[in-house]
Amino acid sequence: MGEFELLARIRERLAADGPHIRLGSGDDATITVPGGTTVTSVDALVEGVHFRRETASLRQIGRKALATALSDLAAMGAEPGEAYTVLGVPADLGEEGCLELLNGMIELARETGTSLTGGDLSRAGELFLAITVVGHAADPEALVTRAGARPGDALVLTGEIGGAAAGLYALSGPNPPADFAFMGPIATIKAKSALEGLVGRQLEPRPRLGSGQALARAGATAMIDLSDGLGADAGHLAESSEVALRIEAKAVPLAPGSAEVMRTSGRDPWQLLGGGEDYELLAALPPERLEAAAEAVRQAEGTTLTKIGEVLAGSGVEIRLPGGRFLEPEGFDQLA
Amino acid sequence: MGEFELLARIRERLAADGPHIRLGSGDDATITVPGGTTVTSVDALVEGVHFRRETASLRQIGRKALATALSDLAAMGAEPGEAYTVLGVPADLGEEGCLELLNGMIELARETGTSLTGGDLSRAGELFLAITVVGHAADPEALVTRAGARPGDALVLTGEIGGAAAGLYALSGPNPPADFAFMGPIATIKAKSALEGLVGRQLEPRPRLGSGQALARAGATAMIDLSDGLGADAGHLAESSEVALRIEAKAVPLAPGSAEVMRTSGRDPWQLLGGGEDYELLAALPPERLEAAAEAVRQAEGTTLTKIGEVLAGSGVEIRLPGGRFLEPEGFDQLA
């Protein structure tokens, strides 16, 4: 199959329409009529850096590439619109491999109401995916940036974190997760299910698009998605908003089983606060909006919203551990 | 320098504003207010496939990556707007190398009125660049797709072709272009200057943005940019428009010196009609619009517009060579 023929097969699977699309794939460019405000983000996943084909299926790699890009739209409170993908295709991948990557992307695109509508393909020495996502909003004021958090705001977190990092440890542990023996004494049915959940958080993260829009409507003053880890991303939000953040470590909900994975592999569970790739949302919010925001997030995605700290005047991030200890974000291992 | 620090240095150089930009680089995503119609295209350049660091400077590689992407906007007749870049950075490139790639992109962005405003960066085993460009138009009808050519239309070409292919032969010849000895008997000052021009066409192509908009306004019915070669791209236009195209090879303007490069290296100069990467525009146009269109293209970019053939009912592309021979597009070597 030549490049043109593969492109034709790919095009068959791409979205020819969407609320804003006037001309889909197959011409020199895609034509859209956005109406209102547009939000654009680009993201790259590279083999050996962001994933390994030994531990993730091609479908999962495709899904994750789109998920990480869409997570940036979630963090702005935007509605997902169009996605474009560039694939760098190594010789050993094959056409079926390309289509399998695409299937993963299309699967998540459908689940999130995104139109995967254009792309480019190139031979490459290693597998890479570069994804561009475009989101929409009525006007710029409907969106939430990293700047805007004010002293007195509550600091809130969707869902639970630490799962992706614990999943990564499990995947890269001495025994692959298919063999749960390394879990030792906790290798019960419950632990196995928890471990599968953690591996799922690592391999199939979900962008919090519904929660992001709900938080924007509920009056979030600043928002960021957790890709680099709670410590590092809280630092980005604090810097952009020119405020200080104080986080109570005990208040941070950890994914079920993640602390156990850390303990059984001889690591400090608090390191999970530095683990990346959970793609939950961290937001600042006036305290009086907290209850309504939690209800909106629950209705949007069935997800919890937890107050984990507060916004103060000053700069930097302080994470208070039990027993009066403090941890600087820089004190964490960057796990991903 | 860490990833965050390099990103900060890159952000300093990115465009914080542009006619449509409300929030530039540094947050989770870029915010724009497009107004009207948006045109989006993505393109990838991969080391060893699209360029070699031995023959192109990092500045040239950056320029070319943006140029090839912008060329797709030119082929729609769109006005350039924003550009986003993903860089895959191998260990041997270094931070200064990244900034040099960026400098090349910024140079062309400024020359074309494009705002290079966002991006992502990843470690990678090999150098790659994935570029997303966004263009603007008043409405979808102001744009020109590949479909729409009608029997009776004239087939026109901006500028001259064959330069990029001849430049590639020169660059990959037994002697590098710095040593013009392989040009043999034609290695005069004039030939040296022509050769530099050809190498320039290969390494620093210019997207025909002004000509594309001029042709759209002048009533072009279909348009495509020549990335794959005249034969192949004419085939794409014919297929999308469901027409046949007849091209008179003798009417096609070849870049000065390109035929000589072919002859001195023992190749048939007509092969240049299959050579890619010239990024000139091929368009169909009602014959009565020809004169006004040529004047508009001359005023827009000082470029020629040449009638090279016509649109007929039917399908396929026929290229008539002198002496009554015919060439099918498939008969050409794909040079790039």
Short description:
With about 325 residues, chain A is of the alpha+beta class.
Can you tell me about this structure?
The structure is a homodimer of 336-residue chains. By secondary structure, the first copy, chain A, is α+β, with helices and mostly antiparallel strands. Chain A has helices spanning 3-13, 58-74, 94-112, 163-172, 189-203, 209-217, 230-241, 258-264, 290-301, and strands spanning 21-23, 30-32, 37-46, 79-89, 115-123, 128-137, 154-158, 222-225, 244-248, 281-285, 305-312, 316-320, 326-327. In chain A, the strands form 3 sheets. Chain A has a 7-stranded mixed sheet, sandwiched between helices. In chain A, strand 1 and strand 2 (30-32) form a beta hairpin. In chain A, helix 1 runs parallel beside helix 3 (94-112), helix 2 (58-74) packs parallel to helix 6 (209-217) and helix 4 (163-172) packs across helix 5. The two termini of chain A are 37 Å apart. Strand 3 (37-46) of chain A pairs antiparallel with strand 2 (30-32) of chain B, so a sheet runs across the interface.
Keywords, separated by commas or semicolons:
homodimer, 336 residues, seven-stranded mixed β-sheet, globular
